[in-house]
Amino acid sequence: MQTTKCDECGSLTANHDITNYGSMEGGYRKLCSLCLNADMAERCGLDGFENIRLESIELTDDAGKVHQFHFRTHLMGHIVSLDAFELQDGSPSGYQFQLVGDPEDDLYALLGRMIEKIRRALAKKHLKDDEFGLQIEDLVVRGSIDS
């Protein structure tokens, strides 16, 4: 996994947890999510923001395949975003989820909601392989397109 040194705390951080933060006028710094969130909390006057790093977890899908999910929180003004994602070659790939909440709420409660959301998605079979080949199950397509 490739890492980058956080310009604020100096810790080596996985690239998927680094944000280029700043402006053209003032320049940019590479910040880990903890330093980014601490800066945002200070700017927004959110003294009670629970700024923690969440450990990855493994969950099993309906076919018995194990998926490892990593978490990232981003404080964006008066909302907090919790992302859950799998990694492939050090970058978010595969299943990806996001929940948005209030920064003053319990982050572990948001994490609990996220885990339930992931479990529901992993319990559903999205594709079936029948005599016509690989088909979409129940005529429902879920996914995202990015460049």
Task: Write up what this structure looks like.
This protein has 147 residues and is α+β, with helices and mostly antiparallel strands. It is built from two helices and ten strands, in the order ββββαββββαββ. It has helices at 33-44, 107-123; strands at residues 3-5, 12-14, 18-23, 27-32, 57-60, 66-76, 79-88, 91-101, 127-130, 133-136. The chain has a four-stranded antiparallel β-sheet with strand order 5-6-7-8, with helices on both faces. Strands 1-2 form a two-stranded antiparallel sheet. Strand 7 and strand 8 form a beta hairpin. The chain is elongated and about 60 Å long. The model has no long low-confidence stretch (mean pLDDT 91).
